Amino acid sequence: MLSHRLATPDDIPAIAAVMDRAITELQRDHLSPAAIVASRAAMGLDTQLIDDGSYFVVHAADGQLAGCGGWSFRATLYGGNHSGDLRDARRLDPATEAARIRAMYTDPAFTRRGVGRLILSLCETAARDAGFARVEMMATLAGEPLYAACGYRVIERVADMARGDVPVPGARMGKAL
């Protein structure tokens, strides 16, 4: 049984630990070790999501953090607090722009148990309730199959979402709500 709630600043250490495990372990089948290291430049927690009340945590029955993820009414498509050049706090116009699905991570111990689907559902409902008709995200290669199974389509392939010396491919994906 999974439970969920909005994240608070007190959750940040547990969220960071889940993100670290997910980045390290779940990308192994898709990226080289060097690309996994490089991916950290474009991944991680953007605490603006917690401040905006749009970031969820999902717990297993035993209370362990199973996953986290959020949505945003801001223009940033992806990136953490440390990804300054990727961040844009401009508010999106729900009438003409797509909300963002952001910072989705599942603890490797909880994959294939509905955690990602639950987070997507929570985010899509919240974005729809805020007046958005569409959502977009930057997907990792590891996450792309889940998003495709949930109705997301590739808008464009990105050769290097980390913008560094080692390419980290991704896919900008979207869905009508």
UniProtKB/TrEMBL annotation:
Which residue positions does the secretion signal occupy?
none
| Keyword Acyltransferase attached | yes
Pfam families found in the cross-reference section: Acetyltransf_1 (PF00583)
Q: Does the keyword Transferase apply?
A: yes
Identify the InterPro entries for this entry: Acyl_CoA_acyltransferase (IPR016181), Bact_Acetyltransf (IPR050832), GNAT_dom (IPR000182)
Q: Kindly give the SUPFAM superfamilies that the UniProt entry links to this protein.
A: Acyl-CoA N-acyltransferases (Nat)
Q: Which GO terms describe its molecular function?
A: acyltransferase activity, transferring groups other than amino-acyl groups
The UniProt keyword set, sorted, is: Acyltransferase, Transferase
Q: Which residues form the N-acetyltransferase domain?
A: 2-177
PANTHER family recorded: ACETYLTRANSFERASE, AMINOALKYLPHOSPHONATE N-ACETYLTRANSFERASE-RELATED-RELATED
Name of the featured protein: GNAT family N-acetyltransferase
Organism field? Sphingomonas ginsenosidimutans
